[in-house]
Backbone:
């Protein structure tokens, strides 16, 4: 994936949902470094609409935002490669385009950028008034899944303003379910970008833990927690991309593909819940 390191970027870290607690013994509390956070986020590809030079299709900000003077620009950041391509197709099929716009649209393509690169640029350009803002485009199906789960838990929700994530808990008042990866004893705590993947893990846990459930998180809250908290279990957190993104990652050369654990399912013996 092309690292567009010359871009400025920012993310609205205003999530209200914070992560819970997983007991891992008496490990010392050490805050994650910026590089460690970036490496976790690098497992998630974000899809941008760019021209042939890799520059994003963006528009200027018309008004001041967050107390800053206007001067920056904004671009769409898609969680789905297919939806990013659908947007390009829509532009190409639009009528009444002037010749200049037709040439611009003809060169558009979908470029995948690691979320970690966007985060890194956030840290480097947060004071730059001319930075590029990213408007995240969550997948409609995942938004619906998140809202359904929230309503099932008794919450009254009419909209979900961030990118949803899903974590499996042993019970609403207990910690998150870790999984073993590979053939050793390494454990990770998966945060899924797909409700379907979380349901796969929940199905494995339910027989021994009938109160197990799926907690709905949001990507803003996750990022905020990784930056601010000193909880030792955060070292074990991994972000699991959607099935669509994992399929895309499998097409990449091995030296460019992120190290992402497989989503748990009943037939996957290398990624199994660690029932306690």
Residues:
């Amino acid at each position: 994936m092309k690292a567009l390191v010359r871009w400025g970027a920012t993310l609205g870290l205003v999530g209200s949902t914070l992560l819970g607690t997983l007991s891992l013994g008496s490990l010392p509390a050490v805050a994650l470094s910026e590089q460690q956070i970036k490496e976790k986020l690098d497992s998630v590809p974000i899809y941008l609409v760019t021209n042939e030079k890799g520059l994003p299709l963006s528009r200027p900000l018309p008004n001041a935002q967050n107390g800053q003077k206007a001067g920056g620009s904004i671009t769409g950041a898609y969680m789905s490669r297919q939806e990013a391509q659908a947007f390009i197709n829509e532009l190409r099929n639009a009528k009444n385009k002037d010749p200049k716009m037709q040439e611009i649209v003809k060169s558009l393509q979908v470029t995948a950028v690691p979320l970690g690169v966007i985060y890194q640029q956030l840290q480097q350009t947060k004071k730059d008034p001319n930075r590029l803002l990213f408007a995240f485009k969550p997948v409609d199906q995942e938004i619906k899944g998140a809202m359904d789960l929230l309503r099932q838990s008794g919450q009254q929700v009419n909209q979900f303003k961030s990118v949803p994530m899903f974590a499996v808990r042993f019970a609403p008042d207990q910690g998150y379910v870790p999984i073993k990866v590979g053939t050793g004893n390494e454990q990770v705590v998966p945060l899924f970008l797909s409700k379907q993947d979380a349901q796969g893990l929940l199905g494995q846990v339910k027989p021994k833990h009938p109160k197990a459930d799926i907690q709905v998180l949001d990507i803003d809250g996750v990022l905020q927690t990784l930056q601010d908290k000193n909880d030792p279990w955060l070292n074990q957190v991994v972000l699991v991309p959607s099935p669509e993104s994992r399929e895309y990652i499998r097409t990449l050369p091995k030296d460019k593909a992120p190290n992402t654990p497989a989503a748990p399912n009943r037939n996957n013996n290398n990624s199994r819940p660690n029932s306690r």
